[in-house]
């Protein structure tokens, strides 16, 4: 049965598409992107869920007449495993590279191909990019057991790339998988394995192996056996899987019933038998290099793996209540709990380094002048942590008649800091749309709007339904904190829009930010420390 979905940009420009419930969400996103003529987008449901991963439209809850929001992606920076080279995808899909030339820092020979790039992944010394037409372009180190040239004819209609330490794997639109690179790192797919790798929806990687999630919920793994490349011991339990996560040498699969199956190196989280009875109602899993942390539906956290990498959270378990989000670096976890505070655990040896790093930041008040921050850092790679939600707006069908007849009112949205913005809004706008418009003007992440009498405004209701009138002054609250991490560092986006960076935290300590950069809009994740050179200079303007 064909369904119709409506996808629209924040500007109101939108399209209607006919789709099949069995389509994977990646196919829908690609179709929306092509129809709107955009390079890189994220598609968001009215419930605030970013469409992606392995689900079909039916599994994602997309129904006939569904209204979807379309968000244009910002820049993304990716690094090789050891941080010797970097690649940045611009908003228009162009690519800039830097770092060690022979390990991916020089893309001169393929620069003419790097247009409208959709995704980039890096191994220890090479990059691979998905182009607009679904083909793949590579550059960097060429020493491979299976060369790119050998599999290039098969690399068509590629939807997703994944990389281990020395190999790439690509998922095509027809569910087939193509791999190249080091044989021992998962870069070779034999005939028997190729037969199993059909109707693949998603793929995950450890340092030396890959695991593919198939449409029927089963899992196929290959690569180095000790790094998760052999899942035969748990094959009977790998059914109805909907998500896979990984450490450096182990995989964890979340099943639809909320239980978890693990395999790979025992000391890297491949053995969860000690906590298996607790692994129920799991909604998400985070990882460090050698440990996993599972967030349950009740907001509690279950950990396993190397204790020095965050696999033992018993000493701070009483603080892990109503957990909203967990982020892992190479050896430390940090969790945002219900009251907005942060609890971290893992490697003790980083405590002094963290304190000194945090104290180097100084609070900068909002001003019109750029704020310049300098910080010593090591050569790194960056991985994008790009949280995009639509909690603050409700996409709807584009109805030009309603736009013509709607009445406009002037409202002011103010922050507690005293900053405010005057907006011309239509009475048929939702509160969510007004919030988003204010957020764009203030260039600060906003969470809720409140009426003059302090009443919380329902984001799904229109301005008219909320009783708003011209001249009303609304109070806005800022978006709650978020975390990003590198393999040895955390970056915290504070409620004010400021950023605090620090190295890994000691066991059981609560991270209290002592400094900030003002109005930063995006956070990126690195694999080491913060970006590339002996001294980093970041210029952050008051508007972001």
TrEMBL record:
Does the keyword Iron feature in the UniProt annotation? Answer: no
Keyword terms of this UniProt record: Repeat
Question: What is the protein's given name?
Answer: Ubiquitin-like domain-containing protein
Task: Say which species the protein is native to.
Answer: Symbiodinium microadriaticum (Dinoflagellate)
């Amino acid at each position: 049965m064909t369904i119709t979905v409506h996808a629209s940009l924040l500007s109101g420009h939108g399209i209607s598409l006919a789709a099949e419930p069995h389509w994977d969400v990646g196919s829908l996103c690609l179709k929306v992107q092509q129809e709107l003529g955009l390079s890189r987008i994220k598609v968001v449901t009215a419930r605030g869920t970013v469409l992606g991963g392995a689900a079909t439209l039916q599994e994602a809850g997309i129904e006939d007449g569904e209204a979807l929001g379309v968000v244009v992606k910002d820049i993304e920076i990716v690094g090789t495993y050891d941080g010797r080279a970097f690649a940045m995808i611009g908003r228009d899909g162009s690519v800039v590279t830097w770092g060690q030339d022979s390990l991916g820092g020089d893309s001169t020979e393929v620069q003419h191909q790097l247009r409208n790039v959709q995704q980039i992944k890096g191994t220890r010394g090479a990059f691979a990019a998905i182009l607009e037409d679904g083909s793949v372009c590579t550059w960097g180190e060429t020493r491979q057991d299976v060369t790119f040239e050998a599999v290039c004819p098969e690399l068509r209609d590629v939807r997703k790339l994944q990389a281990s330490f020395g190999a790439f794997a690509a998922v095509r639109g027809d569910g087939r998988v193509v791999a190249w690179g080091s044989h021992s790192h998962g870069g070779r797919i034999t005939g028997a394995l190729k037969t199993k790798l059909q109707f693949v929806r998603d793929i995950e990687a450890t340092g030396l192996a890959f695991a593919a999630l198939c449409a029927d919920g089963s899992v196929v793994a290959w690569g180095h056996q000790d790094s998760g490349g052999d899942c035969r011991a748990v094959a009977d339990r790998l059914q109805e899987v909907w998500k896979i996560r990984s450490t450096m040498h182990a995989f964890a699969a979340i099943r639809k019933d909320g239980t978890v199956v693990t395999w790979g190196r025992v000391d890297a989280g491949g053995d969860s038998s000690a906590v298996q009875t607790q692994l129920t109602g799991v909604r998400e899993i985070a990882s460090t290099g050698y440990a996993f942390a599972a967030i349950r539906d009740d907001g509690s956290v279950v950990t396993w793996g190397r204790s020095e990498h965050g696999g033992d959270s018993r000493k701070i378990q009483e603080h892990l209540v109503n957990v909203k989000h967990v982020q892992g670096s190479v050896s430390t976890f940090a969790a945002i709990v219900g009251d907005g505070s942060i609890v971290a655990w893992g490697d003790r040896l980083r405590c002094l380094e963290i304190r000194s790093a945090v104290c180097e930041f100084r609070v900068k008040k909002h001003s019109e002048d750029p704020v310049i921050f300098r910080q010593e850092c090591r050569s790194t790679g960056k991985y994008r942590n790009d949280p995009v939600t639509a909690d603050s707006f409700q996409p709807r069908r584009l109805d030009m008649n309603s736009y013509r007849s709607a009445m406009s009112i002037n409202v002011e949205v103010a922050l507690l800091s005293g900053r405010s913005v005057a907006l011309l809004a239509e009475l048929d706008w939702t509160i969510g749309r007004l919030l988003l418009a204010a957020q764009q003007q203030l260039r600060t992440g906003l969470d809720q709007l409140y009426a003059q009498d302090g009443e919380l405004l329902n984001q799904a209701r229109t301005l008219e339904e909320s009783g708003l009138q011209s001249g009303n002054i609304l109070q806005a609250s800022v978006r709650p904190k978020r975390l990003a991490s590198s393999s040895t560092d955390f970056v915290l986006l504070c409620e004010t829009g400021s950023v605090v960076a620090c190295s890994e935290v000691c066991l059981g300590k609560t991270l209290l930010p002592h400094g900030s950069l003002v109005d930063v809009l995006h956070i990126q994740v690195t694999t080491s420390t913060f970006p590339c050179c002996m001294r980093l200079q970041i210029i952050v303007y008051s508007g972001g």
